[in-house]
Design a protein that fits this description.
Number of strands: 2
Strand order of the largest sheet: 1-2
Distance between the termini: 60 Å
Number of helices: 21
Helix content: over 70%
Length: 511
């Protein structure tokens, strides 16, 4: 069955329409990633409504390509403007901008593009092999095990959130509560709908995503004004001018490709491993890979001066994160990052419920997505060579122009989902909630993942209690669910001050 789905997915992705969607998604992702301050997650959420008129495999292929394109696009602004286009490109600034100052902007972007290809292809191969194995492993999971997986996903993502882990967990709980709005899956009675018929079907996931990710970013861009071109004055090259054009060649020579291959492969493995851990992202992988490249290098003193390995390592890692984060997303229904959470939203838009049975019940669409990630990396390299120079124009657009455009597109996208004015107001409400969370330093991804896993938790919990005759001990009668719940409990303790207090108490007793 898996082999047939693998072949079906391969043939599907070769459809000219799907290939065109991959190329288009890559191009859009590059342009959005090149705009300082925007992110791949926001881009996917904003363009998700555009996939409604496509077949599921076509729409998801375009979104996956957009994800990869935005990851590379972030390096364009990082190298030319010394301002990371995306958070994952922050480490690329250290050596990318000094190299551009030496008149080698094309080479810097070429090494970034080549490293992205190597890291992306490596992670795609792992995705195509590991995800089906995990999918087969969880094939026989019932409601009890699915509930334990969902709980583990919530606790791990909440505890690994940036900033306060407690706030991350609270954001996840808020997402769970919002996920219960609508009709009860067992009794069919409305919950928290306040008599509004628009909420009887639950909160439209795409509307919430657009509001949470796009509106706060638009507000920030409008408030910030013009793009900040220069970073800290005490860092290398801070007073140098930004690059407005590319004059040298981009494509590395055969010898240069061989030289960067070991670093790219090592960084790609780092990106895959980091991507497998829910809640982390390309920025974490980039810094990790950069540090490892410096540690393995015999020319440590050259890092920060325009050294090629300092560009290759973070770019290979942040593209490898895409495949790594999709493994738990596809196999377990647990989003590996906020961007993959939005991709899961794309599945839900097309009536495909994410979860452990995704690779069997909707194997044709799922395997098409897996192959699309592989082909999107190849498309990224081809499109990148041809259109990187055109992306320079995008970096010059003022923030006060980009912000209102995003806001208008958000309103159009929210309305297009159900042709409902109510959805526009709901999107704006989630936008203000997202902005408030940003101001209070509360991470948004746990809330999004709570929205996704909320219905799964709700349904599997009620089904499990029915199986167990109302007894909660049903969750510990299964060894798999018991182990998963224990791990979830430990992750909560590690994320809260209670764990630190216990550690301090034990240390004092020993002393």
């Amino acid at each position: 069955m898996e082999d047939s789905f693998l072949l079906i997915g391969f043939l599907n992705v070769l459809d000219p329409i799907n290939i065109g969607a991959i190329v288009l998604g890559t191009l859009i992702g590059m342009f959005i990633g090149a705009m300082p301050g925007l992110s791949a997650t926001m881009a996917i959420a904003l363009l998700l409504p555009l996939t409604f008129s496509f077949r599921p495999e076509t729409g998801l292929s375009m979104l996956a390509a957009l994800y990869l394109g935005a990851m590379y696009g972030g390096s364009i602004a990082a190298i030319l403007l010394r301002t990371p286009g995306t958070p994952a490109a922050a480490a690329t600034v250290i050596d990318g901008f000094p190299m551009a100052q030496q008149g080698k902007a094309g080479q810097a972007l070429g090494f970034s593009l080549t490293a992205s290809l190597i890291g992306g292809v490596l992670s795609s191969i792992v995705l195509l092999t590991v995800a089906p194995l995990l999918g087969a492993l969880v094939l026989n999971f019932g409601p009890v095990q699915i509930f334990a997986i969902a709980v583990l996903g919530m606790t791990i993502i909440g505890s690994l959130s940036t900033g306060s882990a407690v706030l991350g967990l609270l954001a996840g709980v808020l997402g769970l509560l919002l996920g219960t709005v609508g009709m009860d899956p067992t009794t069919g009675t409305p919950r928290f709908a306040f008599g509004n018929l628009n909420l009887f079907g639950g909160i439209p996931f795409t509307v919430a995503l657009i509001g949470l990710f796009s509106v706060p970013q638009a507000i920030r861009l409008i408030v910030d004004g013009n793009n900040a071109k220069i970073m800290e004055e005490d860092s290398p090259g801070a007073t140098a001018k930004t690059i407005s054009n590319i004059k040298d060649r981009m494509l590395p020579t055969g010898r240069q490709f061989i030289d960067i291959l070991p670093n790219s492969l090592r960084s790609g493995v780092i990106g895959i491993i980091v991507g497998l851990i829910p809640g982390t992202g390309g920025d974490t992988a980039s810094w990790f890979a950069y540090n490892e490249a410096k540690r393995f290098s015999r020319e440590k003193e050259k890092f920060g001066t325009g050294h090629i390995p300092g560009i290759v390592a973070p770019e290979a890692a942040n593209n490898a994160v895409v495949g790594g984060s999709l493994i738990p997303t596809i196999a377990l229904g647990i989003p590996g990052s906020s961007a993959t959470a939005v991709l899961l939203g794309g599945l839900m838009v097309h009536g495909i419920l994410p979860g452990p049975s995704l690779m069997t019940d909707h194997g044709d669409v799922t395997y098409t997505l897996l192959w699309a990630v592989f082909f999107a990396n190849i498309a990224l390299f081809a499109v990148g060579l041809g259109f990187t120079r055109a992306c320079i124009a995008v970096t010059k657009i003022p923030n006060r122009v980009v912000g209102p455009v995003i806001l208008v597109l958000s309103i159009i996208g929210a309305f297009a989902i159900n042709n409902s004015v109510f959805d526009i107001w709901l999107m704006l409400a989630f936008g203000m909630l997202g902005f408030l969370l940003d101001v209070c330093k509360v991470p948004t991804p746990p809330l999004v993942i709570g929205l996704i896993l909320g219905p799964v938790l709700d349904t599997s919990l009620q089904q499990s209690l029915l199986i167990g005759g109302g007894s909660w001990s049903i969750f510990f009668e299964s060894k798999i669910s018991a182990v998963l719940l224990i791990i979830a409990f430990i992750s909560i303790l590690q994320a809260t001050p209670v764990f630190k207090w216990i550690g301090l108490g034990i240390g004092r007793l020993r002393s």
